[in-house]
Amino acid sequence: MATYVLVHGAWHTGELLEATAAPIRAAGHEVHLPTLAGNRLGDAKNVGLSEAIQSLVDYFTENDISDAVLMGHSYGGMIITGTADRIPERIRRLVYWNAFVPNDGESLNDMVPPGYVQLFGQLEQNDGSVELPYPIWRDAFINDAEGDLAKQAYNLLNPHPNKTFKDPITLSRNPATMEIPKSYLNCTEDTSLPHSLPWHPRLSEKLGLFRLVQMPGSHEACFSNPELLGRKIMEAGRD
């Protein structure tokens, strides 16, 4: 049996992946659901990308995790890439679920449409946080859910530190040259990035050699179809 570490995206916490973890645990695997620095209750919202990455590195060492399948969702792709660069010996495979794939010196904002960068800059609060407007959440992030579920899920989100979007990542090697096996899990109805600027293949191909796994669903399949998502994460993570 394997150890899975599932890393949430922006505005989320680890506990929002509990339903996704359920089928993985039911299959006999160990699953960890850390919450990153900047998204934990009471965290300051001026946290930068390096601090968020370090919080996951610390989670690995504090919980003595090794030989792990490390999955990152969306913004979590930045975090798992940085973690793999810092502690590659503890990671068995990287799984990117509709996630950003940065090369050295790139920020998340370098990989999104300019309109998002401008919008989040305008929405940034005095504490450094930014919230996702509901209309974008409803139609671009969770377009496959009924209205009630979309609203319930939105109410579980928390303000996200915008600095983590702006900071460039520092890597000793780009993902394509990392020796760790990699997978990309693509939800085919995900329009959180426009299909003219897609997750796959635009970002996935930066992994070099990788396994592609696809499923129907939106960017927030952890709410709209967590059972299938959990099974697909296992498919992406298997040897």
3D structure, described in words:
Strand 3, helix 3 (76-86) and strand 4 form a beta-alpha-beta unit. The chain has helices spanning 18-26, 49-62, 76-86, 114-123, 134-141, 147-154, 163-166, 221-224, 226-237, and strands at 3-7, 30-32, 68-73, 91-97, 129-130, 160-161, 182-187, 211-215. The strands form two sheets. A six-stranded parallel sheet has the order 2-1-3-4-7-8, with helices on both faces. Strands 5-6 form a two-stranded antiparallel sheet. By secondary structure, the chain is α/β, with parallel strands linked by helices. The chain has a single domain (3-237), classed as Rossmann fold (3-Layer(aba) Sandwich).
Briefly, what is this?
The chain has 239 residues and is of the alpha/beta class.
